[in-house]
Amino acid sequence: MKKKSTQLNESKLARYSAVAGTVLASGAVNAQIVYNDVNPDAVIDKNSGPYAIDFTNDANDDVLFAVFSTAGSGTYMYGYIPIQYTYQVSYAGVAAGSNAQLVGVLTGSSSTFSPVPLNNGDVISAAANFGSSGLLGAEGIINASAISFTYPIAMGDWLGATDKFLGVKFAAGANTHYGWVRLDVAADASAITIKDWAYNSAADNAINAGQMLNLENVSVDNKVTIKTQLDEAFVNVTPDLVGGTIAIVNMAGQEIRTIEITDINTNVKFDGLETGIYMLNARFESGSISKKFYAR
Question: Which architecture does CATH list for 219-295?
Answer without folding.
Answer: Sandwich (2.60)
